Structures are given as structure tokens and as C-alpha cells.
Amino acid sequence: MSRWAVVLAGGVGSRFWPLSTPERPKQLLPLVTDKPLLVDSVDRLSSIVEPTHTLVLTNESLVKSIRRLLPAIPRENIIAEPRPAGTAAALTWAALNIERRDGKDATMISVHADWYIGDEAKFREILLDAEETAQKTHTLVTVGIVPTRADQGFGYIQATNPGKSSGSPVKRFVEKPDRARAEKMRSEGYLWNSGIFVWSVGDFLAQVKQHSPELAKALALGPDAEAPEFFASVAKPISVDVGVLERSKNVTVIPGDFGWDDIGTWAALGRVRDKDEFGNVTTGNVQNVHILDCTDNVVQTDSGTVVIYGVDNLVVVVHDGLTLVTTREKASDLKRLVESLPVSEQAKS
Predict the structure, then answer these.
(1) Which domain does 312 fall in, by range?
(2) Do 313 and 236 belong to one domain?
(3) Which of 211, 235, 262 is the last residue of a domain?
(4) Torsion angles phi and psi, residue 299, rounded to 5
(5) Helix (H) or strand (E) segment spanning residue 337
(6) Claim to verify: residue 14 and residue 94 sit in the same structural domain
(7) Are residues 45 and 125 in the same domain?
């Protein structure tokens, strides 16, 4: 058995504007620790997956930056997607690469580059449990996170046998719910759809061939196809959840409880970074931030001085002469804000 890791590191991370830019998106920023999110993601896997067996899928424009950040990863393992085609195509291309190099029985662990993991040892333990399950059952295994709150920003998974630590067939996937439904599903034992996947590449490619007509033309190109031809042949962009997992009856979910969170917005830093006694989080030049009579704010500055007084639940970001002030709730909608700005301000994003 040979083990590979696939790290999805594409996208521009517009919800971390104005700090994130197309040239330096969130996965290249030190948002949780003093290292970029991508480096943290690769480092936490390094004790169970060799650098030579780690693939990073990203945008063409980020390849040089990622090579500098991850010098131990071979150049051929940093794979540029010629065009955005969804995670189904990206993971299929990764699986084909692994199959060519190592055969259809190789195991593939898929993660995203923008996560927080509280207990990294337990995280790796669950991944190895998932790998064992994938080998024994020949199913596509996903790790469902035990919810800590009724979050409307995540999809949910219903297991056939909720609470079974060794894994259970997936009964159904649920798209992002409203708050009332999220509360109900949490009480009923549903799990967050984390996007952590483990499978043998042969089992995965068989399910893609069976259930994903969007990728049929690309798969028909054969094992010698080049990336531009493969991605150009994808009929339409589709996620692996919708294009494969939701259509398959061959999916197993294993519960995971290791302090997982998606670093999707500035508000997420309020959950994963160290706080003061009133729940405020400060990052960047913290010595230039002064807070009085405030609770549950997130403040990031790399220049100037920030003073906030008597306000709660705000996000304040100061970067390169631009100041953003919004609420933690509205922080998830920054793409709409950026698109509404004058072109001169959009250029800073």
C-alpha cells in the first residue's frame, strides 16, 4: 500500500480582502499561526505522507509562490489547473496522476489548504483510520466533523448509523441549512461535511466513471492526456460532493472530533486565535491596537494605529492605506462588497 496526500490550494480567498489578493490569496497568508495556511496544512501531514507523495493543486499564477513556500515538494507535484473546473475534476486529475505513478491501489488523502486543526495528532489518527476503512470496504470515505455549533455555513452529512465511530454508510448529504434546521440536525447527530476524503485511486476513478458524466469526455482521453486537454474536456465545473459522492451509494462517513474549522472569513479568526478576556482577537502589529470596553471583535493591522472603543462583534482590517470595518456576520459577504467598489479600489484586492 502506498499513501499519497492531495492538498487543494486554489481560489483567491476574496473574503479576506483587503489582505488577500489574487497574487497572495488566503492560503498563502499566516492567518492562524506565523506560517501560511498552506504550509501548516502540508506540515501537519508530513509525519504520515512523504513530500514526494504530496500533490498540491492550485492556480497557474500561484505555482512560483508555492514552490518557494514548499521547497521539499517536487516541482512536478505542484499541479496548476489550467482553468477552474470544480473539485471533481481536480481530484480526478490528481487520482489519474497517482495511478500513473503508483497504481490503482494507492491511497489518496484529500484535504484543503485553509483549515484550522486543533488536535493534529488526533487528526492524523482519524486519517489513518479512514484509510484502513477505505482499504477494507473499497468505499469512498469522508470524515464528518462532530458539530460544535449550529453553523449555517457548512453542509451536513447524515450517517445511516449515527455515532458509530468505526464508520457508517452515508444516508444523505444536506446543503447549507437555515439556522433552525442546523440546530435540529445537530441534535439528531448529523455531521459537518468537512471535505476530508480518503480512498484508493482505483475505487474513486471507478465511481467517477459511473456517476459523473460531466467528466466522461475528459476520462476518455486516456492515461497520457495532458492537463490542458483534460480540463478543457470537462463538460461543466462541478464539485466532488455533487458530482460523485451524492450520486454514489458507496460512501462511508467516519466521525471526527479534533478541533476542525474552516478559515473562510475574518470572523473565523475569532474562533481559532487566542483571545483577550473579553473575546477580542488581534493579529498583525498587535502592539498598535488599543481596545477598551469592547467584546468579540477581530482586528488585523499591518500599519498605523487602531483604536476601538465601546463596540462589539466587529471586524476591523487595516492594510496598505485601506481600512475595512464590518460586522462578524457580514464578513462572509465581502465578495459582494469588493464587486461594488470603484475600479481603483478593486485593484487593491
Answers:
(1) 266-346
(2) no
(3) 262
(4) -125, 125
(5) helix 334-340
(6) yes
(7) yes
Res 223: pLDDT: 79
Cell numbers found for residue 105: 491501489
pTM (2 d.p.): 0.92
Inter-residue contact 63 to 192 (CB < 8 Å): no
DSSP conformation class of 317: E
Q: Give yes or no: residues 254 and 279 share one domain.
A: no
Task: Determine the Cα–Cα distance for residues 91 and 85; give it in Å rounded to an integer.
Answer: 10
Residues 129-142 have pLDDT tens digits of 999 999 999 999 99
Residue carrying the nine cell digits 469526455: 217
Q: Which residues of the chain have pLDDT under 50?
A: 349
pLDDT at 15 (0 to 100): 87
| DSSP structural state of residue 301 | E
What is the per-residue burial (b if ≥16 Cβ within 10 Å, else e) of 233-242?
bbeebbbbbb
pLDDT of residue 348: 55
Last residue of a domain, one of 208, 239, 262: 262
Q: At what angle do helices 120-137 and 37-45 cross, to 10 degrees?
A: 60
